[in-house]
Specification:
The chain is an alpha/beta fold. Helices cover 32% and strands 19% of the residues. It contains eight helices and twelve strands. The structure holds adenosine-5'-diphosphate and zinc ion.
Length: 293
């Protein structure tokens, strides 16, 4: 089987060709400019590659309801030119194959369940901390959907008492994304995260916010694996700080050996698929659609 995979992001589209076993044979990165320009390049890339199905993990918000007249659209994004854009329709016109479509982070969660860090379990959550914060989840083997799709990056968290930053989410100001995504770090401290690597207080505060969110997700979803990816998580020292804080916050309430200082290293983890988590996730969406599951 040959599957096409698209990780559609606000700054770049990563397109690849792979198999039903999660192997990526080749991939290409296309900048996200205007839909005309970007989609033209995406479509050209897949032409003549004889794909059997396609998977698209996309930035959002997106319409995932198959009986909706705007199914497959990117809906209300503030990203210029891309609001109300029929992403699945544009691909479908050129490639009459089954197309799996979901959020970028739901896709990544599915990829991690199929081939990555959550291979041994039937439920997990995948959180990306990058330009924004997004979270996807697989629960009992199924992707988590609802009224629309979960938007767990925009939850409300307790502000640190010493933190005077007002928050930069255009909708909520000091929601999780507004306080802890890459641009919030940059705005609060006046430098990019990568330049602040040595500043302990930056990462203590970051862990303070991310751990609150993760503790909330654990309490609500009870995931069997928590996977943390995205640019900000490239700070290697952050994940151990988050693990310690999550244990502290839950304070022994959840009786499971995964949430103990001995075992949490295997519970809150980096993506097993590394940099390919998103693209493999799109591949997993293609496979799922092809198999009609
Ligand atoms: P996107 O979310 O656009 O797909 P990324 O996941 O790479 O892209 O996230 C980009 C954000 O992550 C930017 O705000 C950037 O400053 C931040 N970032 C990237 N690399 C690092 C790093 N090594 N340390 C801290 N922050 C980083
Ligand atoms: Zn918000």
């Amino acid at each position: 089987m040959i599957f096409g995979a698209i990780e559609a992001g606000g700054t770049k589209f990563v397109c690849g060709i792979g198999s039903e076993h999660g192997e990526i044979f080749k991939k290409v990165t296309i900048p996200t400019t205007t839909p005309d320009e970007t989609m033209g390049k995406v479509i050209n890339y897949f032409k003549g590659k004889h794909i059997d199905a396609m998977g698209i993990g996309s930035f959002g918000p997106i319409d995932l309801h198959k009986n909706s007249s705007t199914y497959g659209y990117i809906t209300s994004t503030p990203k210029p030119h891309w609001g109300h854009f029929n992403l699945v329709g544009e691909i479908q016109k050129e490639f009459p194959v089954p197309i799996g479509f979901d959020t970028d982070v739901n896709a990544a969660a599915l990829g991690e369940i199929e081939w990555g860090a959550a291979k041994s379990v039937d439920s997990c959550m995948y959180m990306t901390v990058g330009t924004g914060i997004g979270v996807g989840a697989v629960v009992n083997g199924e992707l988590l959907h609802g009224l629309t799709h979960p938007e767990m990056g925009h939850i409300f968290i307790r502000r640190h008492e010493g933190d005077l930053f007002e928050g930069n989410c255009p909708y909520h100001k000091d929601c999780l994304e507004g306080m802890a995504a890459g641009p919030a770090i940059e705005k609060r401290w006046g430098k990019k995260g990568i330049e602040l690597a040595e500043e302990a207080k930056v990462w203590e505060l970051e862990a303070y916010y991310l751990a609150q969110a993760i503790a909330n997700y654990i309490l609500i979803l009870s995931p069997k694996k928590v996977i943390l990816g995205g640019g900000v998580m490239k700070q290697q020292h952050l994940i151990p700080m988050i693990r310690d804080r999550v244990i502290e916050l839950l304070n022994g309430y959840l009786h499971h050996e995964s949430i103990t200082s001995d075992q949490i290293e295997g519970y809150i983890v980096s993506p097993g698929l590394g940099e390919n988590a998103g693209l493999c996730g799109a591949l997993a969406l293609a496979k799922k659609e092809y198999l009609g599951k």
